[in-house]
């Protein structure tokens, strides 16, 4: 019986999967991204500050959550392009949350 085909997913040295570049995201017509902390805080950001050749996964370790202090985040393209102000609301107490990029000079 033949073995199933195993797909190789390219990863960073630390094991995180490689994601699309900002250029590929822009080619799809997307200009915004959603940044999620592992504690549940999240923020919607414009992706205009990063160049086309940078991968979303390249900047994930640079985010620091101001709510819990955790470093690292999950970044996704914002496919819905909804109201960005709604994406930064902490639903538990309705105060704004902030996630910042450490060392981002771009």
TrEMBL record:
It comes from Bradyrhizobium arachidis. This is Uncharacterized protein. It comes from the Bacteria.
